[in-house]
Design brief:
- Pfam families: UQ_con.
- The structure is a single chain.
- The model has no long low-confidence stretch (mean pLDDT 92).
- The N and C termini lie far apart (50 Å).
- Strands 1-2-3-4 form a four-stranded antiparallel β-sheet.
- It is built from four helices and four strands, in the order αβαβββαα.
- The protein has 155 residues and is α+β, with helices and mostly antiparallel strands.
Length: 155
Amino acid sequence: MTSAMSPSERRLQKELMSLIKDPPPGVSVDAEQAEQNLLQWTIHMEGATGTLYEGESFQLQFKFSNKYPFDSPEVTFVGSNIPVHPHVYSNGHICLSILTDDWSPALSVQAVCLSIVSMLSSCREKQQPPDNAFYVKTCNKNPKKTKWWYHDDSV
């Protein structure tokens, strides 16, 4: 690489290395693809043993802006198997507060993967979000543009 790396690329490079070396259980990153384009990663995720998603595998796409880590990544499920889950829309968008309102630069790709694994693992019943059909028809392609209304907010 001849050009100097931006701070966000340096940070992504570091996170990529640690994800390759020490991935969370059931999580692996497509390292070759990520190294070619640091701003877009594909992450493979296995459903955890003993959960509703055991034996299933999923693909997550992470897209980073050059403001990362101050700007949260855009994270969606892609590919042929989108988990059926109350917080995952059938178009792959994930309703998870750390991806929007609760994002912090201290979080990492690893932390996001762990949150998604635990979100899937704690699921008691496979069902789509109640407003799935409406949301998928009307949402923006970028889930970060959605003003999520968290169903479990005690407002």
